């Protein structure tokens, strides 16, 4: 652990830093996305990129969503972002669910924290999934946790669909940027971006406090279950002797 509130501070700091440099990144990549649009079936390229960057430690969903809105407009832009995000998250979920199944089972037996986290994720259902997804925790990192902790796929996909507005806001920002050339409109978009960042910071702080609270509540039951399992093993071994 980084410290009592280290996780929140680190993620909030990354969100603020990302928002500061996002305009420069968007401007740098704008010509590349225009080139993709002019290709036949060029819209498949950003979908493929969404799928690739859905695997940690890669990132960039927000920037790509802005670029899709900026170049393809609202209708096609939203369709591209929705398809890319959903396909990428599903691929990420099943990859980690099956490739890390044995390792996560061993980790759950060894680590009290991971066992408590797994219990919170499994029992929390859509509520815990949505709370985490609407925070600034990168969605594809959250997907890895959900997959390895044993979240039901139906719960996962419903939460993913319900959390799409978070990324689609970025598409709308891109559409607005495409239609704004005067300083007044650009200032309005800058204010909107700041509002989105502030909302993310607040939601992230509340989400992490909630998850920590649920973890503290789950710990006693996990510890008790481990003690009973240990006592049972000792009884079994002594009876064999």
From TrEMBL:
Keywords: Golgi apparatus, Membrane, Transmembrane, Transmembrane helix. It is found in: Golgi apparatus membrane. The chain crosses the membrane at residues 6-29, 41-58, 64-87, 141-168, 188-208. Residues 61-175 form the VTT domain. It holds the Pfam family VTT_dom. It is a multi-pass membrane protein. One of its GO terms (cellular component) is Golgi membrane. Golgi membrane protein involved in vesicular trafficking and spindle migration. Belongs to the TVP38/TMEM64 family. This is Golgi apparatus membrane protein TVP38.
């Amino acid at each position: 652990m980084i410290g009592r509130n280290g996780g929140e501070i680190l993620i909030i700091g990354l969100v603020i830093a990302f928002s500061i440099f996002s305009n420069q990144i968007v401007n740098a990549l704008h010509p590349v996305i225009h080139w993709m649009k002019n290709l036949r079936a060029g819209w498949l390229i950003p979908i493929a990129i969404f799928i690739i960057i859905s695997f940690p430690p890669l990132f960039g969903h927000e920037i790509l969503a802005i670029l899709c809105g900026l170049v393809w407009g609202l209708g096609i832009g939203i369709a591209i972002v929705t398809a890319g995000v959903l396909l990428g998250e599903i691929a990420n979920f099943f990859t980690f669910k099956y490739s890390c199944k044995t390792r996560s089972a061993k980790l759950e037996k060894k680590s009290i924290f991971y066992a408590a986290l797994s219990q919170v994720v499994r029992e929390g259902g859509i509520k815990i999934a949505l709370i985490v997804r609407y925070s600034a925790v990168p969605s594809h990192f959250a997907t890895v946790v959900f997959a390895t902790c044993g979240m039901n796929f139906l719960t996962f996909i419903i939460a993913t669909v319900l959390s799409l507005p978070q990324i689609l806001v970025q598409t709308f920002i891109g559409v607005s940027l495409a239609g704004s050339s005067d300083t007044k409109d650009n200032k309005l978009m800058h204010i909107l971006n700041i509002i989105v960042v502030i909302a993310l910071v607040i939601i992230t702080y509340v989400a992490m406090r909630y998850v920590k609270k649920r973890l503290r509540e789950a710990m006693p039951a996990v510890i008790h279950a481990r003690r009973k399992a240990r006592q049972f093993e000792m009884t079994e071994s002594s009876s064999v002797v």
